[in-house]
Design brief:
Elements: E1 6-7, H1 18-29, E2 34-38, H2 60-67, E3 73-77, H3 82-89, E4 101-104, E5 109-112, E6 118-119, H4 125-140, E7 148-151, E8 156-159, H5 166-183, E9 187-191, E10 194-198, H6 204-215, E11 219-224, H7 230-241, E12 246-251, E13 266-268, H8 270-284
Parallel strand pairs: 1-13, 2-3, 2-11, 3-4, 11-12, 12-13
Antiparallel strand pairs: 4-5, 5-6, 7-8, 8-10, 9-10
Helix pairs in contact: 2-8, 6-7
Bound molecules: ligand L263DTV3.
């Protein structure tokens, strides 16, 4: 694959791959049959050291709102609890986003703007056990200073961005946290300097595929930046092979996760580039 197109301005870019161009053509020619879906952190929201301080790019909600009435659905698919993504994104009550869907916790929970309701399965008992064990466990294994636990309700995220050597701190935790997660029937979801202990059985690929099927969509766009977005990338590949054209976008604001760039049809410069793409697409759809 060649070097993907980078979006710097707000003209509609040309995807570097033929399948990506076909995906974009399908979205533009039948927008009312298209689902456009976005990851939150790193894609709609710039990465910051404290997850609670993260906010969607200041123009993201308006750009999503300009696009939403022109397509079948705009969705946010995130590892965050859906209510947190809605709050940090400023999505609730935004005119134009009255049908936004947020698939949170990698698709395990769903928030519908139309009702304001969150639907969620029962909690996994392993999370409570892991929660009780985790602080002492991190002390015992000598986790790097600056390592901290984000309480997510349905999951626990161990962050290393605040350590002196975040990547070394991350690598040192990977195997022991995988052991702990396995003992409690959980999986480890690696992300950008974060290892999340969460229930198995759902990922962004399953969430995206089910949503596309639910709507009977005939084209799909997915934009992401992190390892947790790779299942959604694979889902778009599979949908394409099943006859649903798709466009894969990588929000590449840093070199933290190089894995997505090579698989993307289009690379944009972080959340600012995603906002530019949203605007360009909305303008093209008239
Ligand atoms: O699926 P996403 O929307 O990308 O959410 C994945 C994780 O995002 C958050 O962590 C990331 O963003 C933080 C704020 O910018 C940053 O400090 C951290 O290093 C990143 O990994 C969130 O805190 C996690 O719970 C999500 O799983």
């Amino acid at each position: 694959m060649g070097s993907p197109t980078h979006v710097m301005d707000e003209s509609m870019p040309t995807p570097v791959t033929q399948v990506g161009r076909d995906g974009l053509d399908a979205i533009v020619s039948r927008p009312g049959r298209a689902v456009v879906a976005f990851d939150f952190d790193g894609t709609l929201a710039p990465i910051v050291a404290d997850p609670e301080q993260a906010r969607a790019h200041p123009e993201a909600a308006a750009a999503l709102a300009a696009l939403a009435p022109k397509v079948a659905s705009v969705a946010v698919i995130t590892g965050r609890p859906p209510g947190v993504a809605v709050r940090l994104g400023g999505f609730d009550g935004t005119p134009g986003l009255d049908h936004l869907v947020v698939l949170g916790h990698y698709g395990a929970e769903r928030w519908d703007a139309a009702t304001g309701d969150i639907t969620a399965p029962p909690p996994h008992p392993g999370v409570a056990h892991a929660r009780a064990e985790l602080p002492g466990f991190l002390d015992r294994i000598g986790a790097w200073q600056g390592t901290w636990i984000e309480e997510k309700g349905r999951a626990l995220a161990v962050h290393t961005r605040r350590a002196v050597d975040p990547q070394a701190a991350f690598e040192a935790l990977r195997a022991p946290l995988t052991d702990l997660a396995t003992r409690h029937g959980l999986i480890v979801e690696p992300g950008r300097l974060v290892l999340e202990l969460r229930p198995p059985g759902m990922d962004k690929g399953v969430a995206l595929t089910e949503y596309v099927r639910e709507l009977g969509a005939e084209a799909v766009l997915y934009a992401g930046d992190d390892l947790g977005d790779l299942p959604a990338y694979s889902a778009v590949d599979k949908l394409r092979s099943d006859g649903v054209p798709g466009l894969l976008v990588c929000s590449a604001g840093s070199e933290e996760v190089p894995e997505l760039k090579d698989r993307a049809d289009l690379v944009v410069d972080g959340p600012q580039g995603v906002v530019g793409l949203l605007r360009a697409l909305a303008a093209q759809l008239g």
